[in-house]
Amino acid sequence: MNKFFIAGTDTGVGKTVASAVLTLAMRAYYWKPIQTGLAEDEVEHDIVQGLTGLDKTHFFPSTYAFQAGLAIDQAANLENTAVDLDQCQLPEVPHPLIVEGAGGVFHPINATKTLFDLMRKLSLPVIIVSRGTVGTINHTLLTIDALRHRNIEIQGVIYSGDLIKESQFTIERLGNVRTLFHIPRFSSLTKSTLTQWVFENQSAILEGLK
Questions:
Q1: pLDDT in tens, 3-16
Q2: How many CB atoms lie within 10 A of CB 26?
Q3: What fold does the segment set 3-208 form as a domain?
Q4: Which helix (H) or strand (E) holds 196?
Q5: Residue 74 · residue 107 · CB < 8 Å
Q6: CB atoms < 10 A from the CB of 149, how many?
Q7: Is 191 a catalytic residue?
Q8: How far is CA 138 from CA 129, 130, 143, 174, in A?
Q9: What is the DSSP string of 99-121?
Q10: Which of 45, 86, 156, 184 is deepest in the core (most CB within 10 A)?
């Protein structure tokens, strides 16, 4: 399997940086089906493309892109529309694909659906991106439990930023889940710093995905 859905324990947890790392390490395609918080002249995948330096052919446009930096259902309401999951069709590519979600796993997509419904529709193994600081044990274990309760396959956990190793070990033990790798906090997050880190850790990154 070389296609993964990137889910987070929360908003701003590091999903986009993790997606950039995976996209670069795997030379994958990247797709964020539903995006919020866009300026009028912004392109959905600008951040990931800028961090990886990969050609634009690696990036698929979002099915839905809303300007307001709110929950998806709220941002859609402001534009007098609603997300129809039937429109979110997985790109058919023979190469690796990284699909980035939005917010946490209970993120509302419309009046009745949440991110769980999108994950079930796309039917990809889920990689959880989690903080490594205080509070991560509860948030990560709740996310693991919620995914398993819905029979959604979990590939493992990526930790982003500072990491308390004892918390990682507790999550591995109580959640019966693998740690794939840890992305450190970069003093300056640029294409240069990210690509250098990925180059130095590519073997470990790819090994963790097996």
A1: 999 999 998 899 99
A2: 20
A3: Rossmann fold (3.40.50)
A4: helix 191-208
A5: no
A6: 9
A7: no
A8: 14, 11, 9, 11
A9: EEEEEETT-B-SSS-BHHHHHHH
A10: 45
Which of 151, 125, 117, 119 lies closest to 208 in space, CA to CA?
Answer: 125
Q: Give the N- to C-terminal CA distance of the chain in Å, as an integer.
A: 8
Residue 147: both structure tokens together: 């995914």
7 beta partners = 128
Provide the phi-psi class of 70: left if phi over 0, else alpha when psi is between -120 and 50, else beta.
beta
Burial 152-191 (b: 16+ CB within 10 A, else e): bebbbbbbbbebeeebbeebeeebebebbbbbeeeeeeee
Q: How many CB atoms lie within 10 A of CB 204?
A: 12
Question: pTM for this structure?
Answer: 0.94
Sequence letter at residue 164: I
Structure tokens at 203: 């073997």
Q: Mind listing the pLDDT tens digit for each residue in 114-136?
A: 999 999 999 999 999 999 999 99
pLDDT band at 142 (very low <50, low <70, confident <90, very high): very high
DSSP character string of 13-32:
SSHHHHHHHHHHHHT-EEE-
Residues 6+ away with beta carbon under 8 Å from 144: 128, 154, 171, 175, 177
Q: Where are the domains of the chain?
A: 3-208
Q: Which of 3, 32, 121, 165 is catalytic?
A: 32
Backbone angles phi, psi at 17, to 5 degrees: -65, -45
